[in-house]
Amino acid sequence: MNLLRAGAFILLASARNRLLxxxxxxxxxxxxxxxxxxxxxxxxxxxxxxxxxxESFRVSEAARPVAVLAMVAxxxxxLGSSWLFGGDPGALEFSEAEVQFLFTAPARRRWLLHYKLVxxxxxxxxxxAATTFFVGRRITAHPIIFAFGTWIGYATMAFHGAGxxxxxxxxxxxxxxxxxxxxxxxxxxxxxxxxxxxxxRSMDAPPDLDxxxxxSVYGPWAQRVLDTPPLDWILWPVLAPIRMAMAQSAxxxxxxxxxALLVLVAHYLWVLTSKVRFEEASIELxxxxxxxxxxxxxxxTSPLRRSRPLFRLAASGRGEVxxxxxxxxxxxxxxxxxxxxxxxxxxxxxxxxxxLLDPDAARFPVVTAVCAAGTLYLAxxxxxxxxxxLRQDLAHVExxxxxxxxxxxxxxxxxxxxxxxxxxxxxxxLALGTALSSGHAILHTSMxxxxxxxxALGFLLPAITAGSLVIQNLAALLFPAWISAERRSxxxxxxxxxxxxxxxxxxxxxxxxxxPATLVFSGVSVALATVLKVWALPVASAAGAAVLLWEASLVxxxxxxxxxxxxxxx
Amino acid sequence: xxxxxxxxxxxxxxGELRAVEGLSFSVAAGExxxxxxxxxxGKTSTLRCLGGILPATSGAIRIAGHDLxxxxxxxxxxxAFLPDEPRLFDYLTVREHLNLVARLYGVEDWERKADAxxxxxxxxxxxxxxxxxxxxxxxxxxAIASGLLHDPxxxxxxxxxxxxxxxxxxxxxxxxxxxxxAGAAIVLSSHLLPLVEELCQRVLVIAKGQARALxxxxxxxxxxxxxxxxxxxxxxxxxxxxxxxxxx
Lengths: 570, 248
Description:
The structure holds two protein chains of two kinds.
Chain A: H1 2-25, H2 29-52, H3 64-84, H4 96-102, H5 109-139, H6 143-181, H7 183-202, H8 219-227, H9 231-234, H10 236-245, H11 250-253, H12 257-272, H13 279-297, H14 319-334, H15 337-357, H16 366-380, H17 382-385, H18 390-393, H19 397-402, H20 407-436, H21 447-478, H22 480-487, H23 493-532, H24 536-565
Helix pairs in contact in A: 1-5, 2-23, 3-6, 3-8, 3-10, 5-6, 6-7, 6-10, 6-12, 10-12, 14-20, 15-16, 16-20, 16-21, 20-21, 20-24, 21-22, 21-23, 21-24, 23-24
Chain B: E1 3-14, E2 17-28, E3 32-36, H1 43-50, E4 58-63, E5 66-67, H2 72-77, E6 79-82, H3 94-105, H4 110-120, H5 136-148, E7 154-158, H6 166-181, E8 185-189, H7 193-199, E9 202-207, E10 210-215, H8 217-224, H9 232-247
């Protein structure tokens, strides 16, 4: 029991200290502003829905079985993957500090499990709240009931993941003997496997897929699938919390509550009575987690890949090239799957929007749309995603400052790699999109006009990218703690406010920086339009880009001393 | 011998906190100076100011004749700063770290020197390893090899033996002696007083950011009015307890 109290003390004291630290920081104006902004954001986006209700987004009664069936499918996939690929590490995950203080404490191992399971159950509250906001508001008018049911479901799945981890560990550790010890677990698993097989075999063919049709068309079919015996009772442990979450009133929910709680408690007891030695795996997990967190701070979540440098770094020459070489290696070895997914996902989303603007695909080729979207994404959002510059090297400022390079040289060198990569990407996509648009009519433009536009964008967009990169690196120099906080994926109202401030600050500075370039662009294009026709655009863009790059170089020169003044390790 | 490092009335403040106050000393070519003091005495702040990592609040620092404030690039070209915690780039291999340093300091024959250093540090077979594949001690050796590649005239070391195995410690001590004999000036900050006593010709004791004693062990004994055989540890405890007493 002492360990449980100690565990509760860790949770409560950590939460209290975090809150106190944030409150103390409110004395500083910048944190106060960030907190106010964060509160306003949460009010506008999240809290408002809890107060006003979700009615406007509710799916119809007829479509509700579709939502239930989707949740059952997601739950089964999650449960299945915990057996196939290992359970949710979160449930039995100990931090390195917990390993040091709790594993050596004079307490029975069962109390360690109690502590982790209770903690894991409490932490699933956040997941349930997020699901309620993002998903629940679209399928139910009762957020509190939905959140409660979702929490029970998530806690059950977290315990199930822990149990699956222990069962797998038992099998790996003791082979057949371990399998005998986990016989009950494997019987239940086999039951679920049969259920999934049954589900697939017994399903009626669903109505033909029609994206424009309402979900309610599929409602009767989904209800039939859920009511198919014996699937309905085999799936009962999965359905119990889902049905509870989907209840439309307290009176409807209360009779479902005992069943959902029974499933939850059964899972808790299953894990608690496991005889598997989990300590060793937990210690390894703690080390892996510490490394993962370290990597996340650096903006990547995947291990580094081996790759050769793009070019050989000679022993003499400009120092900036050394930084370019270093950061290109960082890009080729360290850009995470997350970053690539963000890049590709963003491009695809914008492409979809462009397609929707013009549903006649024959007039707007998909490849050109994807290229155009990708180009815009790289220019406008690429600098936020590709952080192989000072933002990445904030942790190494001590090393960088000892190098025999001026501050301006370091800032310039750090900016080169992301700018060159993003520019190369933009040019490649522009060339590809323009070339592949041949043979398609796009907004009544000729190929010559498209080339002129592509050339204009080829001048202008890299300059905008440069401006954006300079602003973001300047923010890293002036507000290093905020940029670090951004990297640490910190939570809370203040952190959200900080991110909003950085985002708005970036946009504002970019708009201000674009003003002179826009004036020059407009002046040149108006002056040359009658002579050069559409070809005035690339000339004007080149002039505008030159102004923007000149502004960026001025800021970089000023940022040098800021880098030299940056207080390290404070 | 000429002075490689000259420090005049160095001060460093963090807001209201004065970490270093009025520190003046110099280190000649071939000399190893020990920097000792209790926790929070200002040793790391001093070393970071000397390495050009932190801007000094006031005072002057000259390295190999170059003013660190007025001509930081030339001054830094002559020094190496080796922190207690090796800070390596996760995505560069051991050899690539040396390649990077070679470019930054313009070391033309870096490959030959790098091979020799890697051999000396017992890292020859790990030259293509990433930092994540190295132990704490190996990372420390990579940081040391990177620092020594350009034959610095001034070497600043903050707890240099942390994480090294006994053989590594022995080799590191030999290497420091060898580099001092070749003309490098070395400032070594450590809590391992026997190490300081063994390697350093002179010792600077600081407490609460101020110099409390500076000189050879014999000179400090005279200053402290202690007997001939008093160890650095005894002298250190006496001097720093005086500082604590005067502060109280």
